[in-house]
Design goal:
Argininosuccinate synthetase, chain A, domain 2; five-stranded antiparallel beta sheet; five-stranded parallel beta sheet; 3 domains; 406 residues; Rossmann fold; alpha/beta; 13 helices
Amino acid sequence: MASSDIKKVVLAYSGGLDTSIILKWLQEVYGCEIVTFTADLGQGEELDPARKKAEMLGIKEIYIEDLREDFVANYVYPMIRANAVYEGVYLLGTSIARPLIAKRLVEIAEATGADAISHGATGKGNDQVRFELNAYALNPDIKVIAPWREWEFKSRTDLIEFAEKHQIPVPKDKRGEAPFSVDANLLHSSSEGKVLEDPWEGPPPYVFQRSVSPEDAPDKAVEVEIEFLRGDAIALDGKKMSPASLLAALNDLGRDNGIGRVDLVENRFVGMKSRGIYETPGGTILMAAHRAMESLTLDREAMHLKDSLMSRYAELVYYGFWFAPEREMLQALIDKSQEHVEGKVRLKLYKGNVIVMGRKSAKSLYSDALVTFEDDRGAYDQKDAEGFIRLNALRLRTLAARRRAT
C-alpha cells in the first residue's frame, strides 16, 4: 500500500506499549493523521491513561467508548442463544469481541473522513482475519494497515529501542519478554504464548486472573436462579438486570466458585494449532442455564436441528464471519427457535461445577401426564408403541433379510 494514498487512519488503540509503538510508526512511515479508538468491553482496565498517552503522542481526535451493553446484548447474547462452542470447549470470548471493534473502526473512519483503519494483531493469529473480514463486510473499500505484517522489527528489543528513540514510556515490566499475552473483556480472559507454549506443561497459577482455583473455592455450594425471556437472561435471583450487569454479576459468582477455566489446544483459522488458557466464569454459568431452559421449552426436532448447526455457527464466529450472510441466516433460524425459551433455571455452583438443580416455565413442553409411571388416564396408549417400532424397523428388517440371504 502506497503511503502517499493514506492521509488519515483510525487505530484500534489500547494505550499499551505495542499500540503506542504502532501509533508512532504510522506517523513516521505513513506521515498520516491518526485517530485513536479505545473500546471499553469490560476488560477491567482504567481507560483514562489511554487518553492521556494518546494526547501525549499528539493525537487530537480520541474516541473512548463504553460498549459493554452493546457487546453483551448484541454479540454475546445472540451467541449464547446459539449455544455456540468452538471445538466443543471454547466459548469464543475473544472472537465475539472483534466484530464490534471492527464495526466501530469502520464507523469512526466514515465519520472522520479517514482513509484506513489499523489494528495491532500479529500475522500469525486469528484476530487479523477477524478484524479485516468484518471490516470489509461493512465497507468493501476500506483500507487496512496491519503493522505486524509490514514493519521490519524482529524482536522485543527492536520495539523497545524504537519506543525509547521516540520517547514512548516503557514500563519496567514491559522491558523483558512478556511471560504470556492476555486478551480480556466482560465475557472472558485468554492467555497464550511463552510459558504456555508447551501443551504438556500445566499453566502456572499466576496465569489465572478471573477465577480462584476449584480447590480454593468455598466448601459450601452457592445456589442461583436465572430467568430467561426469548432465550436471553433477564434476571438473577429475581432481580431484573441489564445484559452487561447480569453477566458481570455472574462473573463474580463464577470467579468465587472456581468456574469457567479451560485449557485448550485449538485449531487456528490460519492453519496452526495453538494452546490457550481461557477463563469464562459468567459465560459458563449462562450457557449451562440456557441449555437447561431449552431442554424444557424446545421441541425435540427444533433442538436437534439447532444443535446440528451449532458447530457451524461457532466456526463462523471464530473465523471472523459475523457479518456474513450465512451467520445472519443461521441467527434468524436460532432466534425463531427462542420464541418460547422463557422461564427460570436454578443452579448450584460448587468448586468449578455448574449443576442444574431445577427449571420451570409457563411454556414448558414437559408433560406429567405423558411421562408418569403411574396411571396416565389415557394420555398415552402404550400399545401404540408396537406399531411405531414396526414401522421404524421396516427398513432395518429388509436390510437384515437381504444380508441373511447372501
